[in-house]
C-alpha cells in the first residue's frame, strides 16, 4: 500500500472515482436540433464535476463517527452530518457512538481517503470541514446516513450534496435503522433538552423580529435564532407563518441556566409539522 505523509492534490487519476459519484453519462451521438440544449446541459454538468478537486490522505486515527486524523496531523470533521457523541469526562457515550466510529473505520479500512474541502473549510476548533470519499468514489457521509448512524445537518455555506444526504437519511428513517429505532433520539419537548446536538419538537409561543435577528420562542424554555439576512435569503415563507406553529428542529442547543438557545441558518434545520416534508415530524 502506498503511504502518504501528507495530503496531496490529485486530479487526473481520480476520474473513474469522481464519475461514480457524479454519475454523468454521455451517449456517443451527434447533437441534433432537438437534443442540442440537453447535450449542452450534460456537458456543463460534467465540467462542473471535473472542477471539483479531491486530495488524497492517509488516515491514522478515528476519533468518533464524524472525525478522523490524517498521517499529516490534519484533523478532519465530516461536514453535513452529525453522529452520536463518544464519552467524555462528564458524560457517557451516546447510544450507537461506538458503532458509528467503527462504521467509519470499516469504510476506510485501507487507510486511504479522498478529501473534498467544504466551501467554508474550517470550524471554530480549527478542524478541516470536508466531504470524504472512498477510493472507489463512494461517499462516506452518505453511507453513514444510510446505516442510520448519522443525521444530516446544514450550516451555510456548506450545503453541498444536501439532497443526497436527505435521501439517505430518509431511507434509514423509514427502515428504522440505527438512531431512528431508539427512543433516545426521538424529538424531545422543549423542557427536556439535554444540550448539545439534539432533535426537539415544540409549539412556538412568541416571535420577535429585530433588525438583525428573528427570535422564535417556546415559552421560557427555548429560543431559536435566525439572522434576518439569512432568513430572507433562504426561507421561502415569512417568519409570521410560524406563529403558534408546531415545529421540529435539529442542531446544537446551548444551555445557560434555565435558557436554551439554538442558532440555525438553513430551512432544513427547522421543520413545520404538517406542512414541510415530514422527517422529524413524521407521523403527523
Supply Rg: 21 Å
Q: What fraction strand?
A: 25-35%
Main beta sheet strand tally, sense and closure: 7 strands, mixed
pLDDT averaged residue by residue: 87
Helix content: 10-25%
Using the 3D structure, state the CATH architecture of the largest domain: Beta Barrel
Strand pairing plus helix content: what structural class?
Answer: alpha+beta
Strand segment count: 15
Taken in chain order, the helices and strands follow as EHHEEEEHEEHEHEEEEHEEE
Shape: globular
CATH class of the largest domain: Mainly Beta
Walkthrough of the structure:
The chain has 284 residues and is an alpha+beta fold. The chain folds into two domains: 1-185, OB fold (Dihydrolipoamide Acetyltransferase, E2P), CATH 2.40.50.90; 187-272, Nucleic acid-binding proteins (OB fold (Dihydrolipoamide Acetyltransferase, E2P)). Helix content is 22%, strand content 30%. It has helices at residues 15-22, 36-51, 97-107, 140-146, 162-174, 228-234, and strands spanning 8-10, 54-64, 67-70, 75-78, 81-82, 112-122, 128-133, 151-152, 196-203, 206-209, 213-218, 222-227, 246-256, 259-263, 270-272. The strands form three sheets. Strands 9, 10, 11, 12, 13, 14 and 15 form a seven-stranded mixed sheet that branches. Strands 2-3-4-7-6 form a five-stranded mixed beta barrel. Helix 4 packs parallel to helix 5 (162-174). The longest helix is centred in the N-terminal third of the chain and has 16 residues, at 36-51. The chain is globular. The N and C termini lie far apart (52 Å). Mean pLDDT is 87; it is low at 1-12, 23-31 and 44-50.
Amino acid at each position: 500500500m502506498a503511504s502518504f505523509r501528507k495530503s496531496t492534490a490529485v486530479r487526473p487519476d481520480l476520474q473513474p472515482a469522481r464519475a461514480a459519484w457524479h454519475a454523468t453519462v454521455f451517449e456517443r451521438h451527434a447533437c441534433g436540433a432537438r437534443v442540442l440544449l440537453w447535450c449542452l446541459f450534460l456537458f456543463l454538468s460534467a465540467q462542473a464535476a471535473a472542477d471539483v478537486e479531491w486530495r488524497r490522505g492517509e488516515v491514522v486515527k478515528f476519533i468518533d463517527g464524524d472525525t478522523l486524523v490524517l498521517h499529516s496531523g490534519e484533523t478532519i470533521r465530516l461536514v453535513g452530518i452529525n453522529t452520536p457523541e463518544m464519552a467524555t469526562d462528564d458524560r457517557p457515550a451516546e447510544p450507537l457512538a461506538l458503532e458509528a466510529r467503527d462504521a467509519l473505520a470499516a469504510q476506510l479500512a485501507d487507510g486511504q481517503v479522498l478529501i473534498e474541502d467544504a466551501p467554508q473549510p474550517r470550524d471554530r476548533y480549527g478542524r478541516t470541514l470536508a466531504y470524504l470519499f472512498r477510493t472507489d468514489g463512494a461517499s462516506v457521509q452518505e453511507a453513514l446516513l444510510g446505516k442510520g448512524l448519522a443525521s444530516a445537518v446544514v450550516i451555510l455555506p456548506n450545503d453541498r450534496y444536501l439532497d443526497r444526504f436527505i435521501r439517505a437519511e430518509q431511507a434509514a428513517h423509514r427502515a428504522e435503522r440505527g438512531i431512528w429505532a431508539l427512543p433516545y433520539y426521538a424529538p424531545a419537548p422543549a423542557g427536556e433538552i439535554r444540550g448539545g446536538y439534539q432533535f426537539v419538537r415544540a409549539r412556538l409561543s412568541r416571535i420577535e423580529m429585530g433588525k438583525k435577528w428573528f427570535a422564535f420562542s417556546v415559552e421560557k424554555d427555548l429560543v431559536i435564532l435566525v439572522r434576518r439576512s439569512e432568513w430572507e435569503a433562504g426561507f421561502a415563507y415569512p417568519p409570521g407563518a410560524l406563529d403558534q406553529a408546531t415545529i421540529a428542529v435539529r442542531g446544537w442547543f446551548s444551555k445557560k441556566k434555565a435558557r436554551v438557545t439554538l442558532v440555525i441558518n438553513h430551512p432544513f434545520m427547522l421543520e413545520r409539522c404538517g406542512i414541510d416534508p415530514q422527517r422529524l415530524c413524521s407521523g403527523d
